[in-house]
Amino acid sequence: MNIPTAFKAEKVLGNGVPSIAFLAEYDALPGIGHACGHNLIASSAVYSAIRSAEKIKNGTITVFGTPDEEGSGEWAGSKIIMAEKGAFKGIDLVLGSHPGDRWSVGEQSLADLDYEITFRGKAAHEAANPDNGRSALDAAILTYTAVNMMRQHVRRDVNFVMHGIIKEGGTASNVTPEKAVLTYGIRTSDIDYHKIVVDRFMKIVEGCASATETTYKVKEIGLMYSTTKINKTLSNNIRERLLAKGIECPTLEETLSRIPEGSTDFANVSQVVPALEVQFKIAKEGTPWHSRESLEAAKSNEAKEALKTMIEVLSDTAEEFSINPEFRNGVKKDFLKGK
Predict the structure, then answer these.
(1) Domains of the chain by residue range
(2) CATH of span 7-109+226-337
(3) Centroid of chain to Cα 153
(4) Distance in angstroms (rounded) separating the CA atoms of residues 157 and 267
């Protein structure tokens, strides 16, 4: 796949069947470090794979190194690239984990795609000959206002989120801005409705350009992040393991009733292979993520203890998957339901 900082490590045991993969993330946040806990995600993946290899007699254990989950570089959303290029072909199960402020199984995520809109107008002196000017900034402001109006008229059940900024809007107050640039992120928990909202957004952009007699270009920024395909059999199995260890973990139904809080490229993996990312608690509920508080939590004793639990739970799940055909079939059946 030619992703410079990605990797694949594999160990074949016995007949090599089934094939189970663990996903490691390891990119840090600029200026703050591991405030998203990717140090723990990487450790969980590697050591869960090692423990699985110690427990399993027949199977193939793989660790995929998946860089730039935070979406800031050339290989942003690397799991999406890997999924689209067939990296997970032949894998029967993918397991992952992510630290947070609670324990949960089966978190839903938001479909997300970002856009950059560039309007072009015509520069003119704002006092001497304003009639010759066509303001790209007017087009940008009109778009921004129209998007705010659209927010009132979308479905409430799809967790619609649309966030944007005006990046560029002119160079001098006495010159009609001939260029303006906006960026927008559009998220929903319904992948089909996401397409509908994007279409409405494009109509807004077109209409605002027409109204201001400007031109425009639209560029997609990055990759399309999918929603998560939920696997009930897998989620319930891992929840039972957590409960057996005395950990309070809400039911899958309770978890899914929460409003999704973000987007992840792990979701795209769940669309091509049975997969689950388990959230494990390292901080008190309500702790803001990508913050100094979450940075401290990621290196705390609580995090280390939660990591130990996560390693045992994931490796035990992998072991059962390797020896229990009923469990394997249930996971596969749940995955195929959505196809």
Answers:
(1) 7-109+226-337, 111-224
(2) 3.40.630.10
(3) 26
(4) 19
Provide the 8-state DSSP code for 145.
H
Q: Which of 26-35, 132-141, 158-167, 264-273 has the lowest mean pLDDT?
A: 26-35
Query: Class of 111-224 per CATH?
Result: alpha beta
Alpha carbons 211 and 234: distance in angstroms, whole number? 52
Q: Is 261 helix (H, G, I), strand (E, B) or coil?
A: coil
Per-residue model confidence as pLDDT tens digits over 223-249: 999 999 999 999 999 999 999 999 999
Strand order of the sheet with strand 7-13?
A: 7-13, 59-65, 19-24, 93-100, 275-281
Please name the residues in contact with 257: beta carbons below 8 A apart, sequence gap of 6 or more: none
**pTM exceeds 0.90 for this model:** yes
Average pLDDT over every residue of 308-336: 98
Q: Kind of pairing, strands 275-281 and 93-100? A: parallel
pLDDT digit string (tens) for 27-74? 989 899 999 999 999 999 999 999 999 999 999 999 999 998 887 678
Nearest to 91 by CA among 17, 30, 151: 17
Q: How many CB atoms neighbour CB 236 within 10 A?
A: 16
